[in-house]
Specification:
Order of helices and strands: EHHEEEHEE
Distance between the termini: 34 Å
Number of domains: 1
Low-confidence stretches: 98-131
Structural class: alpha+beta
CATH architecture: 3-Layer(aba) Sandwich
CATH class: Alpha Beta
Largest sheet: 4 strands, antiparallel
Radius of gyration: 15 Å
CATH superfamily: Gcn5-related N-acetyltransferase (GNAT)
Shape: globular
Strand order of the largest sheet: 1-2-3-4
Number of helices: 3
């Protein structure tokens, strides 16, 4: 498996099966050109098997952080660690963007943890649940 940061709309179009709808050139290029936006694609044997999108957010108490916006893995490639590998690849990508921090400070309990919510269009979606 190889994980690469997408930089062109053409890359996103080859991974169109991982998105909810058709990839629009103008929207794709706007997303990819926006500072702090991240799109990673996991390739297995050259096939785009998974994707992750993240968006930089800035909080007044913590500064810039990366918000994992969407994670999708092709149904035929699930349960192989692709989603986990994509989430692990966010950290080095964050540092490449602008030294963005992730995670929580020691002693601060996260307010939510992810859980499976639903399957739509053949893809599983996660939603935060209060702890």
């Amino acid at each position: 498996m190889e994980i690469r940061r997408a930089t062109t709309a053409a890359e996103l179009k080859t991974a169109r099966h991982l998105f909810d709808g058709p990839v629009q050139d103008a929207w794709a290029e706007r997303f990819l050109a926006s500072p702090g936006h991240l799109m990673l694609i996991a390739y297995v044997g050259g096939f785009p098997a998974g994707m992750l999108s993240g968006i930089e957010m800035s909080r007044p108490d913590k500064g810039p952080e990366m918000c994992l916006y969407e994670l999708g893995v092709d149904e035929a490639y699930r349960r192989r660690g692709i989603g986990h590998a994509l989430t692990q690849a966010v950290r080095p990508a964050q540092l490449a963007i602008r030294g963005i921090r992730s995670g929580s400070r020691r002693g601060v309990r996260p307010v939510a943890r992810p859980r499976l919510l639903t399957t739509r269009h053949g893809r599983e979606y996660m939603r935060a649940r209060a702890t």
